[in-house]
Model the fold of this input.
Amino acid sequence: MGRAMAVLLMAISLGCCNIVNGAPPTVLTRAMPRRGADSCKPLVIAHRGASGYVPEHTLGAYALAITMGADYVEPDLVMTADGYLIARHDNELGLTTDVAQRPEFAGRFRTQIVDGRQMTGWFTEDFTLAEIKTLRAVERIPNSRPGNARMDGAFDIPTFQEIIDLVKSMEISEGRTIGIYPEIKHGTHFQHLGLGMERSLVDTFHRNGYIGPLAPAYIQSFEVNNLKELKELTDLRLIQLYGGNPANQPFDQFVTGTKLTYAEMATPEGLREIAKYAHAVGPEKNYIIPRKEDNTLGEPTNFVKDAHAAGLEVHPYTFRAENSFLPAEYRSESHSEAAIGDFNGELITFIATGIDGLFVDQPDVPLRVRDICLENKLQ
Done:
């Protein structure tokens, strides 16, 4: 995995990382029953890895999340020009790699429409995997995470297969099952380019032994039609994501001319429709507890109850410890973007609504907050 990975894992073992609110949870010993990826509730899904501590979507971020005890690691997937699945939050590379400092790629800089929005930069679909592998990852939000920015350049851009290989190798050292929870990014965009990810993702999962609804895997998308397509391709569990603005449409629904909005999908009727093809829903957390005008939390909605009534699990996104992401009542007095607030308080409030899992940038914190795992549930 390279020198950077070895250095990171050594640092983890020596406890040098600045973990939020204390030390990471105790690692299970060999004498204990093997913990399954779904043994604990709510599931702790390491959002882009332990991205609160290490630049997102790197093997270092995923390795740290696993060492902390995360149940699942979550890679966002996009496609290269030669058809390889790689982990990036967006197909635009400028925010999370050093591509802007690479003169050999200056000619790839362009403007295009992605999911109805004009974007300018360097795009994964214009690079082969070999070219992508020459780039180095950088921190997306350095003002909020200056510690992460110190690792700029330490990691390359991993393929989906490399993430699977990491997970399987660390299952041996951790003595437990670790789940993988990829998201298909910009599905319609890549389909129109002839680079659809759905079949490739399913084939990669199946080839690596992830088969059936009990496998430690989920596939997620903000779009609808590709999830329905995936339902015909695999029995792996699927999750319907919701955009942050309920008035918006999934992009594939906009393209096909339906009137379906995320707000309609959040109604009891909409949730029952989703249950025909998905195992779970992934709403932005304001669907569960909206914020008031003063940025404090309001009263919980019926979303969790209605989803459970439809037979769906609820895995909201995204929980982050920094002040700039927290509700007002959980922020510390510091005005620094990087300051850590009362993250435990926010997590406890949302867990009390009955959610079944959560996407989080600092996975060590909810691991200490949630209930004890069902250690006798093996997978």
The radius of gyration is 20 Å. DSSP finds 14 helices and 13 strands in the chain.
